[in-house]
Each structure stands twice: as structure tokens, then as C-alpha cells.
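Pilot study result, target chain (159 residues):
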Amino acid sequence: MKYYIILLFLAFSFSSFAQKVEKDGKTYEVKKEKIFLNGEDVTETLNLEDKQTILKKAATISEELKMKEKAAKKLEKENKKAEKAQKKAEKAQKKAEKELKKREKLQKNFERAQNNLEKAQSKYEKLKKRGKLSPVDEGKWLEKIEKLTEKVEKAKKKL
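Predicted structure:
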């Protein structure tokens, strides 16, 4: 795209040095107030009315070229702006996706910790009912349940 714009710009530059004007079936070339026909200066041989007509047409063509060049520059600026906005939007979308993944991971960790705590409490209650817990084992189970409870609280805070 850049090369296309540069080429377009150069084409406008080169064409602005000499305008070709058609009058009465002849193609005149105008360069800085001088009028050429087939490479020969005919400025002095033309009558005043023809000179003015040709110069006016050349000025009009020159103005049109300048307007087109300005439009091309404006279009280029708008394209750059659009590209910038698109990049910004993509960056924001990536950030949002990353935040969502982080949130999902935290939720998953919380659910896992909660599930582990429930399992440990259930198993502890079963063993306690059956009377299979020695005082040392019971202390270990209570410690384990306390640690799992802390993990659940930490996961909940992060969430």
C-alpha cells in the first residue's frame, strides 16, 4: 500500500511540472507560463485570447491535480488512523481475553479448593462416625481441613 501511494504521489509531482491542454484539436504543453507545441515554444506566436484560454485550462488542470493530491494525502491519513484504531481495538480485545482466562482460572482454582475441602470433611466425618480415628489421626485431619479452608478463603479473595 505504501508503494502505491508513493508511486501515485510521484506521478502527481511529475505531471504538475507540465500540463497538457487540448485546443482546436492540437495538444499544447504548458510549462511556467510558456506554451509548447510539439516541443517548440509557441507562446509568442499565439494571439492573446488563445494564450489566456490555454493558460486558464492549464491552471484548472493544475488545481485539479493539487486537489487530487490533497485528497490522496487525506485518504492516507485516514487509513493510518483506521489502522491505528484497529490495532488499539485488537490490543483491547486481547487484554479482555487474557483477563477472562485469568478469571476462569481463578474460578476453577476456587471450585477445586472447595471440592477438596468438602471431600476431606466428608471423609473425616465418615472415619469419625466409624470410630477409626486415633487422637493423632484426628489432629492431622483437623489440620488438613484447616489448611484446605485457608486455601478456599485465599481463592475466594483472589476471585
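One observation from the pilot: The first strand starts at residue 19 and ends at 23. A full batch analysis is planned for the follow-on phase.
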